[in-house]
Automatic annotation (TrEMBL):
E.C. number(s) listed in UniProt: 2.6.1.9
HAMAP family: HisC_aminotrans_2
Record-level GO BP terms: L-histidine biosynthetic process
Top-rank taxon, per record: Bacteria
The protein, known as: Histidinol-phosphate aminotransferase
Pfam families found in the cross-reference section: Aminotran_1_2
Stated family: Belongs to the class-II pyridoxal-phosphate-dependent aminotransferase family. Histidinol-phosphate aminotransferase subfamily.
Pathway in which this enzyme or protein is active: Amino-acid biosynthesis; L-histidine biosynthesis; L-histidine from 5-phospho-alpha-D-ribose 1-diphosphate: step 7/9
Annotated keywords: Amino-acid biosynthesis, Aminotransferase, Histidine biosynthesis, Pyridoxal phosphate, Transferase
Coiled coil: none
């Protein structure tokens, strides 16, 4: 058959191991999943109530424009509704942007290593992918600028970067945007924005730079990954161009209701951020005590160089019922990426790592 030739080597997304599969395989009762940067505190309790009280008109198509959510979100962010695009997770927004702009002959610039979906989507569209190595875990913005030419359509910045957790300060992004040609779309992926403790006001950049789109999600701090709601913030002109590229009913009625409700509980968000910041400090202390290199993180995860084969370390942690992400497939073969869990969960991870590091056990 006449497949696009570039899709043949692609593999389906490899999700973190599921709790059920690890339970079965290792005959364990308790499993702690810290592999996909989900929120260990779950989601706002108000969401369950809203879902119970919602009218269940499931027979009808949902509101494809997600009007209620858009209104609530616009007022929360202090932007106009026509500056928002609601999508089936940020993953769909990445796909929509790529479909709208990329094709053979065009290219796109991104860091290596970063969130893998940018590259994946670009390959499917047949565009050239220009990757720029991170420097000490950070985006190398100057080299990224030199990789752009007339055929460059999109530049991706992941901030904080997954998997390193490193953060580009707003001033550096501003300096970068000033130098990017105004017909190149800059995508700023802020999936972890609500965890960031460094000062940042990236939304103000959308007023100054019409070629910027910010991506955010309800999957991370809002704890609603299963509902698949993400969104883009840009100029109304850019949103207008992207709207026809999304599926007509890309988000469903339950997801829209859950996200709208979650947005009104900012106390929950603040509390999760505070716990996360405190727990990150515990990891920093542990890494320093054991001389393990790590990147200070502005997300809800930390990439630790365990100085051993990452797959073996992840496998060892699995036998203890701890699911983390091996850095091997993320471009860091001796590191593990650990989602910041609750206090007791993090202590279990550190105890298990300590056993490895002090050579009490071999992976
Ligand atoms: C988790 C994540 C996403 C995907 O989020 P969804 O909204 O669940 O699709 C996007 N970008 C980064 C950097 C992420 O870590």
């Amino acid at each position: 058959m006449k497949w696009k030739k570039q899709i043949l080597p692609l593999r389906a997304y490899q999700p973190g191991k599921s709790i059920e599969s690890v339970k079965k395989q290792y005959h364990l009762e308790e499993i702690i999943k810290l592999a996909s940067n989900e929120n260990p505190y779950g989601y706002s309790p108000s969401v369950d109530q809203a879902l119970l009280n919602g009218d269940s008109s499931y027979t009808f198509y949902p509101d494809g424009s997600a009007a209620n959510l858009k209104t609530t979100l616009a007022s929360h962010l202090h932007v106009e509704e026509n500056q928002l695009l609601i999508t089936n997770g940020t993953d769909e927004l990445i796909q929509i942007i790529s479909r709208a702009m990329l094709e053979p002959g065009k290219n796109t610039v991104m860091a290596a290593c970063t969130f893998p979906q940018y590259k994946h989507a670009a390959i499917i569209e047949g565009a050239e992918v220009r990757e720029v190595e991170l420097v000490n875990g950070f985006h190398d913005l100057n080299t990224m600028l030199t990789k752009m030419d007339d055929q460059t359509a999109i530049v991706w910045l992941c901030n904080p970067n997954n998997p390193t957790g490193t953060y580009i300060p707003e001033e550096e992004i501003r300096r970068f945007l000033i130098q990017v040609p105004s017909d190149v779309l800059v995508v700023l992926d802020e999936a972890y924005q609500e965890y960031v403790t460094e000062s940042s006001n990236s939304l103000s950049l959308t007023q100054q730079f019409s070629n910027l789109i910010i991506m955010r999600t309800f999957s991370k701090i809002y704890g609603l990954a299963s509902f698949r709601i993400g969104y883009g913030i840009s100029t109304s002109t850019t949103i207008q161009c992207l709207e026809p590229v999304r599926l007509p009913f890309n988000t469903n009625v339950l997801g829209q209701l859950a996200a709208t409700t979650a947005l009104s509980d900012q106390d929950f968000v603040q509390s999760c951020r505070a716990h996360n910041t405190a727990e990150l400090q515990q990891y920093y202390g542990f890494c320093e005590e054991h001389s393990l290199p790590y990147f200070p993180s502005q997300g809800n995860f930390i990439l630790i160089n365990v100085k051993r084969d990452a797959d073996e370390v992840a496998e060892y942690l699995l036998t203890k019922g701890l699911i983390v992400r091996s850095g091997k497939s993320l471009g860091f073969p001796t590191s593990v990426r650990i989602t910041i869990g609750k206090k007791e969960q993090n202590e279990k991870v550190r105890n298990a790592l300590q056993e490895l590091i002090t050579e009490k056990v071999r992976p």
